[in-house]
Amino acid sequence: MNRPLLDVRDLSIRFGGLVAVADVNLKLNASEIVCIIGPNGAGKSTLFNLISGIYRPTQGSVTLDGQEITGWPAHRIAAAGIARTFQSSRLFNDLTLLDNVLIGMHTRTSAGVLQALLLPGKARAELEAAAERAGELIRSVSPHLYPRRHTLAGALPQADRRRLEIARALASEPKVIMLDEPSSGMDDRDTDALVADVRRVMSERPGMSFLIIEHDMRLVATLPNRVAVIDYGRKIADGDFSEVRLMPRVQEAYLGQKAAQHA
Ligand SMILES: Nc1ncnc2c1ncn2[C@@H]1O[C@H](COP(=O)(O)OP(=O)(O)OP(=O)(O)O)[C@@H](O)[C@H]1O
């Protein structure tokens, strides 16, 4: 059997008395899209923070492409091939779209794009080549964003901010890209466009995989190969969305939350 691209084993983290992620096992194969779903506060973002090195696990391991990366600092995990976006935007509003993507490239340039930005005479050729690549990345994620590449990111509407964040994450040439609620703030039309964008990006990068936290069932029902459900920090289901959605434990997790909201 092929070894998974990302292999999460028995991953746990405890904050004082709260076990936010508990014994989670998750495999992501090459060229696969897996969605993580679950009620608010279930531990989905914390799981991303563990995989990307923002938190150190209390227990368990994370292996990327056969290399164990458990406990590595976030910048090293990014350089090893895991890129991510966050629930709240981390774009630099006062920089152009192009510069936001250039910053995402720093793990893949030898002289360092930041250094080149600070020292304009030096590393000019590398900067120009990187700027061209950044432009192409923006075009590949979203052709309609490309003509706006020299405008400030702060002026972008929410859906385009999400697209730009994906372009920036791709700039590090990751093996795995993790998106935290990419459709939040999007209407149905934008969500459908996002599904098409992710599919196009995947088809242009054989072997790259997506791990996506989502609440929008429209996206969850159409995009992923597989869906993993987290509830109270534990994975309670993993499989085809059509099967997972019918499982009593999954329905209970969602209905329980709705009942609590209406109480
Ligand atoms: N740094 C931290 N310190 C203490 N508790 C934390 C910390 N980070 C997360 N938690 C707790 O861990 C639990 C899981 O939170 P998390 O943000 O991972 O949930 P989530 O599934 O991503 O929720 P949502 O869908 O609302 O974003 C919550 O109870 C949260 O309060």
Task: Please characterize this protein's 3D structure.
It is a single chain. The protein is of the alpha/beta class. The chain folds into two domains: 6-91 and 160-262, P-loop containing nucleotide triphosphate hydrolases (Rossmann fold); 93-155, no CATH class. The chain contains ten helices and ten strands. The strands form two sheets. A six-stranded mixed sheet has the order 6-7-8-3-9-10, sandwiched between helices. Helix 3 (97-104) packs across helix 5 and helix 5 packs across helix 6 (158-170). The longest helix has 18 residues, at 124-141. The mean pLDDT is 90. Bound molecules: adenosine-5'-triphosphate (ATP). It comes from Mycoplana ramosa. This is ABC transporter ATP-binding protein. Residues 6-257 form the ABC transporter domain.
Produce the secondary structure layout.
Layout: E1 6-15, E2 18-28, E3 33-37, H1 44-51, E4 59-64, E5 67-68, H2 74-80, E6 82-84, H3 97-104, H4 113-118, H5 124-141, H6 158-170, E7 176-180, H7 188-204, E8 209-213, H8 217-222, E9 226-231, E10 234-239, H9 241-244, H10 248-262
Parallel strand pairs: 3-8, 3-9, 6-7, 7-8
Antiparallel strand pairs: 1-2, 1-4, 4-5, 9-10
Helix pairs in contact: 3-5, 3-6, 5-6
The protein binds adenosine-5'-triphosphate.
Count up the domains. 2
Quaternary structure classification: single chain
> How would you describe the shape?
globular
> SSE order in H/E notation?
EEEHEEHEHHHHEHEHEEHH
Strand content: 15-25%
Domain ABC transporter: 6-257
Pfam family, one: BCA_ABC_TP_C
Organism: Mycoplana ramosa (Mycoplana bullata)
Protein name: ABC transporter ATP-binding protein
